[in-house]
Amino acid sequence: MAPTIADIQAARERLAGVARETPLYPTETFSRLSGRSVFLKAENLQRTGSFKIRGAYNTIATLGEDERRAGVVAASAGNHGQAVAWAAREAGILATIFMREFSTSLFLYTPRSEPIGPLLYHLWIDGQHGRMAALGVVVSLTSVLLVAAAGRITRTPLAR
Fold first, then answer.
1. DSSP string of 68-96?
2. Under CATH, which architecture does the 5-154 domain have?
């Protein structure tokens, strides 16, 4: 199911004051190659270093009380896992992040420094979805709430 304009607008409201308004920078190389003006959105300036904070926060902000008590679960050793851990901390709920055994040290140690600290499992992600679902609400990379939050990026007006 694809997000609607209403989903994108609701995400925009939930993200107000949370996701940073990041600048657009013109790129000479891509503009020249495409024959059009191309701009890059500096989402690396978000609190967790990527646009993934938008979807993670938007999803967690919609959880009911029972879901919040259960906590959230994500499978990622990258930006998605970082964003889910951050958004869960901000919401005051537990996050369990599944990571591959040989994840880079940057992503293994950063979530542990969070005050509410997610539980960290060094497991292979393959075949773990059933176990993940038993531990809490799975924050999926393909959920409508996550995709709707990314839609906010496209609504940013171009600065001239």
1. HHH-EEEE-SSHHHHHHHHHHHHHT--EE
2. 3-Layer(aba) Sandwich (3.40)
Q: Where are the alpha helices (DSSP H) in 25-157?
A: 28-34, 52-61, 65-70, 79-91, 105-109, 129-135, 144-154
Nearest to 88 by CA among 118, 109, 125, 121: 118
Model pLDDT for residues 107-146, shown as the tens digit of each residue:
554 544 444 454 555 454 555 566 666 666 666 666 766 6
Q: Domain residue spans in the chain?
A: 5-154
Question: Tokens 């996701």 — which residue?
Answer: 19
Tell if the pTM clears 0.85, that is, is over it: no
DSSP character at residue 4: P
C-alpha span between 146 and 52 (Å, rounded):
8
- 120 close to 99: Cβ distance less than 8 angstroms: yes
Rg (CA), the chain: 17
* 68: Cβ contacts below 8 Å, ≥ 6 apart: 91, 93
